[in-house]
Write a structure and sequence with these properties.
Blueprint: H1 7-19, H2 23-46, H3 52-65
Helix pairs in contact: 1-2, 1-3
């Protein structure tokens, strides 16, 4: 079951990418978190080098635009 996306989770993933020393390490981080936050967010953190704060701001903006589930 996917984890809720939190700033702390993004920081933990970013730290794991920073600690990765080989392609296998990076691949392991992708595999570990792919089902939790998706490949696009992982690529933004690792490939595009987005900062955690920048990615978190985008998540907050996305949440504001999304229709509320409570309204159903």
């Amino acid at each position: 079951m996917p984890q809720e996306i939190t700033k702390e989770l993004l920081e933990r993933i970013d730290a794991e990418f920073d600690a990765a020393r080989s392609p296998e390490d990076v691949r392991a981080v992708f595999k570990k978190y792919y089902s939790d936050i998706g490949w696009k967010r992982l690529c933004r953190l690792f490939v595009l080098q987005y900062g955690v704060d920048e990615l978190w701001l985008a998540e907050e903006e996305r949440a504001k635009k999304a229709p509320s589930r409570d309204a159903e």
